[in-house]
Amino acid sequence: MDAVVYKGPHEVAVEEVDEPEIEHPNDVIIDITTSCICGSDLHMYEGRTAAEPGIVFGHENMGIVTEVGDAVSDLEEGDRVVAPFNVACGFCENCEDGYTGFCTNVNPGFAGGAYGYVAMGPYTGGQAEQLRIPYADFNALKLPEGDEHEDAFALLADIFPTGWHGTELANLEAGDSVAIYGAGPVGLMAAYSAKIKGAAEIYSIDRVPSRLDLAEQHCDATPINFEEADPVEQIKDEHGGGVDKGVDAVGYQAIDPEKEADEAYDPARENPAVVLNNLIRTVKPTGELGIPGLYVPEDPGAPDEIAAQGRLGIDFGLLFEKGQKLGTGQCNVKSYNRELRDLIIEGRADPSWVVSHRVSLEEAPEMYQKFDNREEGVTKVLLEP
Ligand code: NAD
Ligand code: ZN
């Protein structure tokens, strides 16, 4: 079958790979109908992780069940399902507590499993024609038959729950003011979640005009372009004293060595800690911070430039002085995807406006490049094998 294969920094190719097979009686195989490209894929795509060439990408997967393992009881051939990006067993201590992003069974020695992701276990990605879903009764969320809401349901694999998670980590409540750094797909879903939850004021911070427009249009957010002036000052001009809650939906961003030579380029703006420090500055004393943006741990065994990514210059003293609380980590998709699915079915939420492209698998290499460049008008890209 065809699949999107990582070839090396800034290069993916559509190549022939082996079809997945049932490996355990708890597995199902699905025919992929939609698999999305994610900002998390870019950490590997940009060559900043230990991902080896040959990995099949794709952790945001949806499709139709075609084969069912003998021990699977709740799924049958023909079912339409979406799989959380987390692979989880459902019965370890963390899964039982709802922390399915930190399952201890699927990827021993590491916190949690995922499809098509470095260090996240032996689970091949779904940017392909087919996918194996382990512990399928637990991991596959059933969807109504047909093809209605295909785009919106595909977002249940990751970014809609992850945006929601960002607001949960910050304990966002109706009436709160909130600043959301990043208007990429995750930040936009966090802003949309804040709107659904009844936030009184939403600030969306980015530099890509088309993304800021979406935040304004669909989330009633005040757009803040951080290239025009210090975003913290811009927010404080509108809302003195600091906002109640903050979300970092940016995560680690690389300093571009090619652009560093350019005088107009300010690497300080790209410093991996800049967003976290801005977040601490933007939120009021005793406010709460949700950090779904992805950071990597310091790894003494890795090449220096990768190891160093874990060392962030965070102003912990300011966090202490302001007495803020914070939450971070992988989204536990299972904790939210059923409720968010039902909001979509009942017409009370429709996050599909974040989708800018639905293209064939063959177009993946070109779309990876455009999404990585945060090109105007390229927001969420869905692949359809
Ligand atoms: P993305 O990487 O395109 O989004 C990041 C956005 O931040 C971009 O629009 C970019 O222009 C903007 N940005 C860059 N520097 C900024 C700055 N200094 N201030 C404000 N905005 C800035 O794509 P995404 O899919 O939205 O991913 C966002 C982050 O969420 C990534 O780190 C990704 O790995 C992470 N993520 C985490 C989880 C989780 O489970 N915790 C799940 C999915 C994605
Ligand atoms: Zn993702």
From TrEMBL:
The keyword DNA-binding appears for this protein: no
Q: Which domain of life is it from?
A: Archaea
The GO annotation for biological process reads: small molecule metabolic process
SMART domains per the record?
A: PKS_ER
Any stretches that span the bilayer, and where are they?
Answer: none
Please give the Pfam families that the UniProt record associates with this protein. ADH_N, ADH_zinc_N
The family classification in the record reads: Belongs to the zinc-containing alcohol dehydrogenase family.
> What's this protein's name?
Glutathione-independent formaldehyde dehydrogenase
What is the originating organism of this protein? Haloarcula salina
